[in-house]
Write the C-alpha coordinates for this entry.
Amino acid sequence: MKKAIIVIIAILGFCQTKAQHNNHETQRTHAVVIDSIIQTSNYTYLLGRENKTSTWLAVPTTEAQVGKTYYYMGGMAMNNFASKELKRSFDVVMFLGGISDVPLDETGNAQNNPHANDKPYKRVVPTENKIEVNIEPIADGITIKELFSNKEKYAGKTVKIKAKVTKYNEAIMNKNWAHLQDGSNFEGKYDLVVTTESTVKVGDIVVIEGTVILNKDFGYGYNFDLLVENAVAK
Protein backbone atom coordinates (compact mmCIF):
# COMPACT_ATOMS: atom_id res chain seq x y z
CA MET A 1 0.00 0.00 0.00
CA LYS A 2 1.29 3.40 -0.85
CA LYS A 3 2.07 5.57 2.10
CA ALA A 4 1.30 9.24 2.33
CA ILE A 5 4.43 11.30 2.72
CA ILE A 6 3.98 12.98 6.08
CA VAL A 7 6.54 15.54 7.11
CA ILE A 8 6.92 17.93 10.03
CA ILE A 9 7.68 21.51 9.22
CA ALA A 10 10.71 23.23 10.63
CA ILE A 11 8.90 26.49 11.14
CA LEU A 12 12.02 28.18 12.30
CA GLY A 13 14.18 27.05 9.47
CA PHE A 14 13.27 29.36 6.60
CA CYS A 15 14.58 32.85 5.84
CA GLN A 16 12.33 35.53 4.53
CA THR A 17 12.29 39.12 3.45
CA LYS A 18 9.11 41.16 3.58
CA ALA A 19 6.36 38.59 3.06
CA GLN A 20 2.63 38.56 2.63
CA HIS A 21 0.34 35.69 3.54
CA ASN A 22 -2.21 34.93 0.87
CA ASN A 23 -5.17 32.64 0.69
CA HIS A 24 -4.59 29.78 -1.76
CA GLU A 25 -7.89 28.00 -2.05
CA THR A 26 -7.08 26.21 1.19
CA GLN A 27 -10.34 24.30 1.27
CA ARG A 28 -9.66 22.13 -1.74
CA THR A 29 -7.12 19.47 -2.63
CA HIS A 30 -4.48 20.33 -5.20
CA ALA A 31 -2.95 17.71 -7.48
CA VAL A 32 0.36 18.78 -9.00
CA VAL A 33 2.83 17.17 -11.36
CA ILE A 34 6.41 17.87 -10.31
CA ASP A 35 8.53 19.43 -13.05
CA SER A 36 11.61 20.38 -11.02
CA ILE A 37 13.12 19.69 -7.59
CA ILE A 38 15.68 21.66 -5.58
CA GLN A 39 16.99 20.17 -2.34
CA THR A 40 18.38 22.37 0.46
CA SER A 41 19.42 21.65 4.02
CA ASN A 42 15.96 22.25 5.48
CA TYR A 43 13.56 22.33 2.55
CA THR A 44 12.68 20.62 -0.68
CA TYR A 45 11.50 23.09 -3.32
CA LEU A 46 9.12 21.59 -5.87
CA LEU A 47 7.91 23.22 -9.07
CA GLY A 48 4.40 21.83 -9.25
CA ARG A 49 2.16 22.09 -12.31
CA GLU A 50 -1.61 22.03 -11.88
CA ASN A 51 -3.41 22.20 -15.21
CA LYS A 52 -1.40 24.94 -16.97
CA THR A 53 -0.33 26.82 -13.85
CA SER A 54 3.05 26.24 -12.22
CA THR A 55 3.77 27.09 -8.57
CA TRP A 56 6.85 26.65 -6.42
CA LEU A 57 6.10 24.59 -3.32
CA ALA A 58 8.35 24.21 -0.27
CA VAL A 59 8.15 21.30 2.18
CA PRO A 60 10.59 20.11 4.84
CA THR A 61 13.31 18.02 3.23
CA THR A 62 11.76 14.94 1.69
CA GLU A 63 12.16 12.62 -1.27
CA ALA A 64 10.10 13.35 -4.37
CA GLN A 65 10.25 12.43 -8.04
CA VAL A 66 10.08 14.58 -11.16
CA GLY A 67 7.07 13.64 -13.26
CA LYS A 68 5.13 12.18 -10.36
CA THR A 69 1.79 13.57 -9.08
CA TYR A 70 1.50 14.69 -5.48
CA TYR A 71 -1.41 16.07 -3.48
CA TYR A 72 -1.73 18.80 -0.86
CA MET A 73 -4.27 20.98 0.89
CA GLY A 74 -3.83 24.37 2.51
CA GLY A 75 -0.47 26.07 2.72
CA MET A 76 0.94 29.52 3.26
CA ALA A 77 1.81 31.66 0.23
CA MET A 78 4.79 33.95 0.64
CA ASN A 79 5.39 36.65 -1.96
CA ASN A 80 8.83 37.90 -2.92
CA PHE A 81 10.47 35.12 -0.95
CA ALA A 82 14.28 35.25 -0.87
CA SER A 83 16.23 32.10 -0.06
CA LYS A 84 19.65 32.97 1.30
CA GLU A 85 20.81 29.39 0.90
CA LEU A 86 19.84 29.28 -2.78
CA LYS A 87 20.80 32.92 -3.35
CA ARG A 88 17.68 33.49 -5.38
CA SER A 89 14.24 35.00 -5.05
CA PHE A 90 10.85 33.58 -5.94
CA ASP A 91 7.81 35.62 -6.93
CA VAL A 92 5.77 33.33 -4.69
CA VAL A 93 6.42 30.12 -2.76
CA MET A 94 3.70 28.00 -1.19
CA PHE A 95 4.99 26.61 2.14
CA LEU A 96 3.38 23.30 3.04
CA GLY A 97 3.45 20.98 6.00
CA GLY A 98 3.66 18.01 3.68
CA ILE A 99 2.68 16.35 0.44
CA SER A 100 0.96 13.05 -0.19
CA ASP A 101 1.55 10.53 -2.96
CA VAL A 102 -2.07 9.38 -2.70
CA PRO A 103 -5.20 11.53 -3.10
CA LEU A 104 -6.58 13.35 -0.06
CA ASP A 105 -10.14 13.46 1.17
CA GLU A 106 -12.01 16.66 2.03
CA THR A 107 -10.51 16.72 5.53
CA GLY A 108 -6.93 16.53 4.33
CA ASN A 109 -6.38 12.87 5.15
CA ALA A 110 -4.82 10.51 2.64
CA GLN A 111 -7.50 8.26 1.19
CA ASN A 112 -7.17 4.62 2.21
CA ASN A 113 -4.64 5.67 4.82
CA PRO A 114 -4.71 3.25 7.80
CA HIS A 115 -3.74 6.16 10.03
CA ALA A 116 -7.00 7.95 9.41
CA ASN A 117 -6.51 10.47 12.18
CA ASP A 118 -3.00 11.49 11.14
CA LYS A 119 -3.50 14.81 9.37
CA PRO A 120 -0.51 15.38 7.12
CA TYR A 121 -0.81 19.15 7.27
CA LYS A 122 -0.77 19.80 10.97
CA ARG A 123 2.53 21.57 11.42
CA VAL A 124 4.43 21.38 14.65
CA VAL A 125 7.87 22.57 15.64
CA PRO A 126 10.39 19.76 15.48
CA THR A 127 12.41 19.01 18.58
CA GLU A 128 16.04 20.05 18.41
CA ASN A 129 18.71 17.44 19.10
CA LYS A 130 19.47 17.13 22.78
CA ILE A 131 22.71 18.80 23.80
CA GLU A 132 24.97 18.22 26.78
CA VAL A 133 24.15 21.01 29.18
CA ASN A 134 23.40 21.23 32.89
CA ILE A 135 22.04 24.58 34.00
CA GLU A 136 20.82 25.17 37.52
CA PRO A 137 17.55 27.11 37.70
CA ILE A 138 17.56 30.60 39.18
CA ALA A 139 16.11 31.08 42.65
CA ASP A 140 12.67 32.24 41.46
CA GLY A 141 12.64 30.14 38.31
CA ILE A 142 11.74 26.64 37.16
CA THR A 143 13.32 24.02 34.90
CA ILE A 144 12.06 22.90 31.53
CA LYS A 145 11.28 19.54 33.12
CA GLU A 146 9.13 21.22 35.74
CA LEU A 147 7.27 23.19 33.07
CA PHE A 148 6.46 20.18 30.89
CA SER A 149 5.56 17.94 33.81
CA ASN A 150 3.12 20.51 35.23
CA LYS A 151 2.05 22.38 32.14
CA GLU A 152 -1.58 22.74 33.22
CA LYS A 153 -0.43 24.34 36.46
CA TYR A 154 1.59 26.96 34.60
CA ALA A 155 -0.84 27.61 31.75
CA GLY A 156 -1.43 31.35 31.41
CA LYS A 157 1.15 32.16 34.06
CA THR A 158 4.49 33.92 33.84
CA VAL A 159 7.57 31.76 34.34
CA LYS A 160 11.31 32.31 34.49
CA ILE A 161 13.68 29.75 33.02
CA LYS A 162 17.46 29.80 32.69
CA ALA A 163 18.60 27.86 29.64
CA LYS A 164 20.88 27.72 26.61
CA VAL A 165 19.77 28.91 23.18
CA THR A 166 20.09 26.04 20.70
CA LYS A 167 18.33 27.63 17.73
CA TYR A 168 17.21 31.17 16.91
CA ASN A 169 15.42 32.84 13.98
CA GLU A 170 14.22 36.39 13.59
CA ALA A 171 11.12 37.97 12.10
CA ILE A 172 8.98 34.94 11.35
CA MET A 173 5.29 35.79 11.63
CA ASN A 174 6.40 39.08 13.24
CA LYS A 175 8.17 37.27 16.06
CA ASN A 176 11.65 36.11 16.97
CA TRP A 177 11.79 32.41 17.83
CA ALA A 178 14.23 30.50 20.03
CA HIS A 179 14.70 26.91 21.15
CA LEU A 180 16.04 26.49 24.70
CA GLN A 181 17.49 23.60 26.69
CA ASP A 182 18.68 23.44 30.30
CA GLY A 183 19.58 19.77 30.53
CA SER A 184 16.38 18.70 32.25
CA ASN A 185 13.96 16.30 30.62
CA PHE A 186 10.38 15.12 31.13
CA GLU A 187 9.32 12.08 29.14
CA GLY A 188 11.52 13.08 26.20
CA LYS A 189 10.52 16.74 26.31
CA TYR A 190 13.62 18.86 26.80
CA ASP A 191 13.28 21.45 24.03
CA LEU A 192 11.35 24.64 24.84
CA VAL A 193 10.17 27.07 22.16
CA VAL A 194 9.75 30.75 23.03
CA THR A 195 8.68 33.81 21.08
CA THR A 196 10.35 37.08 21.95
CA GLU A 197 11.21 40.58 20.83
CA SER A 198 14.62 40.16 22.42
CA THR A 199 17.65 39.40 20.26
CA VAL A 200 19.72 36.39 21.26
CA LYS A 201 22.13 34.06 19.51
CA VAL A 202 22.82 30.34 19.53
CA GLY A 203 25.04 29.43 22.46
CA ASP A 204 23.79 32.21 24.73
CA ILE A 205 22.75 31.24 28.24
CA VAL A 206 19.78 33.42 29.04
CA VAL A 207 17.04 33.89 31.59
CA ILE A 208 13.71 34.21 29.84
CA GLU A 209 10.51 35.45 31.42
CA GLY A 210 7.26 34.97 29.56
CA THR A 211 3.75 33.58 29.53
CA VAL A 212 3.05 29.86 29.17
CA ILE A 213 0.56 29.11 26.41
CA LEU A 214 -0.94 25.69 25.70
CA ASN A 215 -2.42 24.46 22.42
CA LYS A 216 -1.55 27.59 20.48
CA ASP A 217 -2.70 27.78 16.86
CA PHE A 218 -1.14 30.56 14.80
CA GLY A 219 -3.20 29.67 11.76
CA TYR A 220 -2.00 28.09 8.52
CA GLY A 221 -1.77 24.88 10.53
CA TYR A 222 1.02 25.99 12.86
CA ASN A 223 0.10 24.33 16.15
CA PHE A 224 1.98 24.16 19.44
CA ASP A 225 1.20 22.02 22.45
CA LEU A 226 3.22 24.34 24.66
CA LEU A 227 5.32 27.46 24.20
CA VAL A 228 6.34 30.55 26.12
CA GLU A 229 5.16 33.74 24.44
CA ASN A 230 6.30 37.35 24.62
CA ALA A 231 9.39 36.29 26.52
CA VAL A 232 11.99 38.81 27.64
CA ALA A 233 15.51 37.43 27.53
CA LYS A 234 18.25 38.68 29.84
User: Anything to note?
Assistant: Confidence is low (pLDDT under 50) at residues 1-26, 113-124.
